[in-house]
Amino acid sequence: MRDARIIEIVTELDIVTARKLGRDEAKEIGFNDVDQSRITTAIGELANNILLYARAGKIVIEEIEENGSKGIAISSIDKGEGMKEIHRVLEDDYSSANTGAGLLAVKRLVDSIDIQSKIGKGTTVKVVKWLS
Amino acid sequence: MNVNVQFREDGDTLLGYIEGEIDTYTAPILRDELEMIRLSEGLSVELDLSNVNYMDSTGLGVFVAFYKKIVKENASLKLVNLSSRLTRLFEITGLSELMEIGEGGATNARI
Amino acid sequence: MEQIRKQYKKILSDYIGNQSESDLYIGQNFIKRMIQKNVTPEEVISIHKRALEEIYDDIPESVLHGYDFLIEVMVHFGLKVQEHQALLAKQEELRIEMEIATKIQNLLLENEIPSPSCVDIGMISVPLRKMNGDYVHFMHDDERYLSVAVTDVVGKGVPAALCMSMVKYGLDTLEYANSNPSYVLEVLNRIIEKSIDDSMFVSLCYIRYNLQTNVLTWSSAGHEPSLYYEEKSQSFHDLESKGLLLGILPEAKYTQQDIELNSGDFVIIMTDGVTDFRNREEIDSRQIIKELALANRHLTAQEMCEVIYSELQKLHDFKLEDDFTVVIIKK
Asked: Residue limits of the STAS domain (chain B) (predicted)?
């Protein structure tokens, strides 16, 4: 298994870099064209949120394996303001108006999402998609 | 439509020059601008309304809230150069008995 | 999924073969099955791309890249559509809540126009949005006193409506129609001042009519002056007072005045939504109301209110900007 890829997100160009690396990784793992697009879109949304709400942060892309199935995990890590009401972020009515592109949108593209956030310390979002 | 406020200090007097239309949509902007003023005892605030061409009751509410704050802080407020339409609005509502309304002295010169 | 692919490929190749309308129709109906199986738009394109690749083995690479591009774009398109739908659902939810709130308000503020034998009363009150920031309260003690309060809460919509409920309960606690108007205003002012925000206030015109002596006693708190038409002199008078808006100073005092209504006299009480012409300073709305009332004074009070409403609505090009309320008391 390859090492995790880490992309610092500081400018909009970094979003494209992260997408490219994510797409290559997804292809490598064996995801089909539609899933490759979904994974790439999810990376784009996460990276965009970093720029919008924390100004800077990083995206970590790694291949994962569990009970014989392969998948991809993408984490977005920032040291921004953090979010209140994490439980509400994933509710339907909380989406775009409050969180930009919306983590809800990202959730629909992947199999699972986990959010850890501390006010004033930053936010980590980890999404996982399994190869079906 | 928009509302715009500019301030100038002149000794113990703070002169504010308000321009635009004050309605449900712009009243919050005006409220925020007025809230930023640091009131202190003895400060007199003079607001020039000569370029306010419209005000509805929400706008009136902003002035009422500001007036209450002024009284609380022992400062003073004067509204000057109101159009006849605005003067009538302050008269009908009884606010002209409460607030000082008059001709502008210092603010006649544009800021 | 594999089955869907196969069926799609079959329908597609049938269509390419003979371009018949029936294959198009079958294709459209097939979308229903795809939706049942949760196939997303980008997957449809992917299925289409694969089917084409299988039907023809000479498709240029560039065309296939074109499909890849479309798949990518559709992923995002699908996301945005879903977000949009979520917002629409939320909006619908708010609309339903609003409708319920409006019904509750209508129930709370329900008030019948009294019809005493010696005086004619008309009223019209139309909210700008669903909920009304104007309110008319009538009280009628057997055949002695009749009183009416015309109120306008600053602002419009829900915040104004919530504040209005408080005004209504304040008026309800006063119970009797024979209270002095100035006293009513002083009591209401204290209730309102205690409970509302610094930038909120209420304007109110309170009128008590003595049905036996025909003396009309009025007091006003920051309200648009009422119009009094005197038949004897064939002229209008403004019922002007400098009473302060309710809810600003706890100790505010109000004065009251009397007029005697004789046959043919009438009083028009209105809210500022009736007289306010925002971008048309040239319009003297009070003058227009006087002329309308004068020309229609042979009608009933209710009909006069309706004429004033429909004529002013026309003047506003049917785009009123505030809640609109007119009450007419006619001897």
From this structure: 3-111
The whole-number pLDDT of residue A89 equals 66
**Cα distances (Å, whole numbers) of residue A112 to A63, A75, A87, A107, A127:** 15, 12, 14, 7, 6
Domain A5-130, CATH number (from 3.40.50.720, 3.30.160.40, 1.10.10.10, 3.30.565.10): 3.30.565.10
Which range marks the domain in which residue C172 is found?
Answer: 109-330
What is the architecture, at CATH level 2, of domain B3-108? Answer: 2-Layer Sandwich (3.30)
Tokens describing residue C153: 């809460």
- B34-83 pLDDT, tens per residue? 998 888 888 899 999 999 988 988 899 999 999 999 999 999 999 999 99
A13 touches chain C (CB under 8 A): no
Using CA atoms, how far residue A79 sits from A7, A75, A120, A123, C247, in Å, is 15, 13, 8, 6, 47
CB pair distance less than 8 Å for C83 and A97: no
pLDDT of res. B111: 44
Q: How far is CA A100 from CA B87, C45, C181, C258, in A?
A: 45, 28, 54, 62
Residue C246 DSSP one-character state? B
Is the CB of residue A132 less than 8 Å away from at least one CB of chain C?
no
In this structure, the answer to whether residues C192 and C47 fall within a common structural domain is: no
Q: How many domains is chain C built from? A: 2
Q: Is the ipTM of this complex over 0.90?
A: no
Query: How many A-C residue pairs are in contact by the CB < 8 A criterion?
Result: 46
A101-105 average pLDDT score: 71
Distances (CA, A) of C66 to A26, A34, A37, A121, C74: 20, 14, 14, 43, 12
Q: Which two tokens stand for residue C138?
A: 């009538």
The structure tokens listed for C232 are: 């004897």
Same domain, residue pair C124 and C81: no
Query: Nearest chain A Cα to C90, which residue?
Result: A93
Q: How far apart, in whole angstroms, are the C-alpha atoms of residue B43 and residue B51?
A: 24
Which of C307, C238, C321, C308 has the alpha carbon at shortest distance from C276?
C321
Domain at C113, CATH number: 3.60.40.10
CB atoms within 10 A of CB A42: 28
